[in-house]
Design brief:
This protein is mainly beta. It is built from 1 helix and 47 strands. Among the domains are: about 100 residues, Immunoglobulin-like (Sandwich); about 90 residues, Immunoglobulin-like, CATH 2.60.40.10; about 120 residues, no CATH class. The two termini are about 30 Å apart.
Amino acid sequence: MAKGAVVIAGFLLSLAGFGASATSTPVVTVTFPSNGATVHGPVYYAASASSPDCPKGIASMRIYSGPYISAYTVNAAQFSTFISLAPGTYSTVVQSWDYCGGVGKTPITVTVSSTGGVTVYTPTVNAAWASPIHFVASASANSTCTKGIASIRIYSAPYVKAYTVNSNGLDTFLSLPSGTYSSTLQAWDKCGGVYKTPITVTAQNSHGHSLYMASNDLDYVSRYPVDDQGFLYPADQLPMPNGPPQDFVTDRSGTFAYATVALGIEAFTVDHATGGLIEVPGSPFPAAGSGPFKIAMDPQGDFIYVTFSSSNTVSSYRINRNTGALKLNGSAAAGKGAGAVKTDPSGKFLYVADSIDNTVSAYLIDWTTGALKTIAGSPFVTGVNPNVFATSNNFLYLFSGNSVSESPKSISGYAIDTLSGALTPVPGSPFAGHGSPANYIAVDAVHNILYQPTFPAPLGDAFNINTIDRATGTITFVDITAQFQEQDAEAMLVDFSGDTLYMIDLWRPGTSDTSTAVGSFAIDPSTGQLSPLGTHYHTDSHNEYASLAVVP
């Protein structure tokens, strides 16, 4: 909605051009303030207009704070704004003009209190709101304090600071997980006075998504409901019928899920109503090598690729799109220590990190059969112990040290030749981490940001924010996120939309307790900064590098 006063030069003259005999009458709807309301501080107006009989629509809207006293004008069909009025009672009018010469108006009587206090316009009580919840409030000081209001703050719960503005008017959206909150809108004046208005806020969000965490020290998969804002909720435990998984992935549509187990590859259909996993008949499907390890899903969801760490091979499996069943397409040799595996974003090429040989094996994918063909020049030499792939556009990133003793490892970046799949180091590669970074990375391919957790103990967790040059693939360190509680973040995943980052971290870092927790963060699309979302949930796993997968 438009905010701020707009001066319209010659406005009344322009209306004359519409003609004297208008056949339309705009309808003006005033959401705030309610007629007869008594408020503190500047008065919040929110209104809209329509003109069903004028196909050209609404030209302008205006607030009259009294007869012939124009307080605010906007060239739009809706607006929201604060109007400063002295204490007293006002017969205001919200008026609109359409492009056919029609005029519509709605009178609103409002009283501005002479006492200090906080008026909350929204959210209203006795209603459930989907996040982000719109908060609007205004405040005024007692008459003894002529300096006025200094600031207003939202406490979403007792002692929980959610938002502060240095103004006498507050208008913001706040994301809250589902639940009922005893919130308070509190204001401070410039003379030391404090004013409070408590409200009960009910957030009711859709829980249509699921985050899965799978670890090789648990014989179940934890499924966390996720709402539309990225908040997590307590997990269900979904049994793994054939033992703990080494890795766990879902297809992008959220139809099927796959896990590597000792006996082969488990396949599941995903129940979209509950997030539950239903074992596919014939599962687990036989392993094509020894030591089933990591899985990659091709972007189209037609194939999965599995590395086998003992036989040092990688195999291709076709997915039956009706049932989720797997059919082996064939295998290819990889280097020693075959582990992390990743397709490029197009699904044309496949890459395997050979952590013992210090190379990356590269393959061309037959789009029809999913079969693998080694790319000329493969394997490509990397630094020491390459692992943890991430991709953005036509660039591939991984950890690989400059020496055996290097700790932490550097981030290596490679340009992917779009015709051959060959890898070429991007300018500046390898890139050193900042602070004391962990050996894990995640890419927000939507906003071209690469994240790396770092441990600035004893201050707590933070993340290195690196931008990715769209043309060259070079990464540039730009900032460290705000510090969080001490959690030693490790495994990470950015959702497909680029809105949310999920992570696995230590539950009680700095102690003998090595159990982990799962949490989520909102991504600021303009800066890449991360904001914690709700609760971190304790797990029974002690594996910081467990798998995360999300179903949209």
